[in-house]
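Mods, move this if it's the wrong board.
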Amino acid sequence: MDHSSQARELLVELDRSAPVTLSSQLEGQLRSAVRNGRLKPGTPLPSTRALAAQLGVSRGLVVGAYAQLGAEGYLLLRRGASPRVARIAVAPEPAAAARAHQPDHNLRPDLPDYSAFPRDRWLTSYRAALKAAPDLELAYGDVRGAPALRAALVSYLGRVRGVSATAEHAFVCGGFAQAIGLLCAVLRDEGRETIGVEDPGHAVIREIVARTGLQPVPIPVDEEGIDVAALEDASPDAVLITPAHQFPTGVVLSPRRRARLLEWAERRDAIVAEDDYDAEFRYDRAPVGALQGLASQRVAYLGSASKTLAPALRLGWLVAPSRLIRPLAEEVLYTVIAPPRLEQLAFADFLERGELDRHLRRMRLRYRRRRDVLLSALARRLPEVEVRGIAAGLHVLAMLSRGSDESRVLDEARVRGLGLYGLSEHAVRPGQEPALLLGYAVSPEPAIRAAVAKLAEAVDAASA
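Not the wrong board. Structure tokens:
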């Protein structure tokens, strides 16, 4: 007997008042669970003795049900081992359908090289954090997140981004999306109704903001960043910007506009939400400090580990002005209660041991090589394309020839298995110049060259 199977549980509900026998009910529920994929192939089931005890029925009833399902091919039965679910033809899982739509040539601008995630170093931090964590850390804890991580975050952000804050101002969130959602919900509760968003700007983030109840107001972006004069004319209650590396154009908010933006925010009593999504990655220019460091009580600083490590971690942060700490804490308490904690403790250890710094140094070198390969391939295959935003980040903006049909180029590219975006897909106002957003982080150098070759074919086909 495999005694480990006795500890397993299985969700089965038997209705003793039903006209159907308990044995038939048990067989039917297990059969259905295998067919619809709820019980996956290879899943061990409880022993007959354990399941009988759980359900309050005789062991013989369970033995009979298992035997029938074994005879039908739903279960694998072997003496001395746990019964296991057999592999049969079931409906495909949604994940399989999603995998089928992955591009053959990935030039998406919003992905890092997640294959480079430092698994061993992260595992070291996770084990160390879990081993050292007192029992109290396994409770809900502070709604703002684990104190160790909040302290490590403000120390790191102060050192590398010029953020000015204490751990009291920091909130750990489930990625950037939750952070901006929390902030917008609090602003809405204060009676704010509108928020300026860069145009062009990330389409998904614009939709996230809209679903909080705030109305996004598109503000134009030019070669100096967000147009502050247009912002003053629109006069929203808040504004969301990407000042260090604007998405998608790649421009940096100029010093003159930084000053004017903060002056506007002070006069308007507005909050500036600073999305610092990939500022660690720079290649041909000096770092640009966070706007928050210039006006900590007027700017809410948001970031995440999605671009620096991997999106799957779902680790983000919000450094809030003092007056927003309490309403933000209440918003967390009455929505998610508290963010997941074990990953936070691991990330705190990861930061404190300098592992993030080491990882970023490695990735800057890798991304710079890939960027150079992309630029070289574009120069060779598509010399008519003007490339912008090359000094930092994880993508470039490839300006197509005037008169090009961006939509048609995108269609031709996607038919050829390319994953990429068009500038117009992230714009609110019509009339944007035709351009493509080309990411170079997720694909190795040979794959980038192959992708650009396919892109050249698409451009030729669209102009034919």
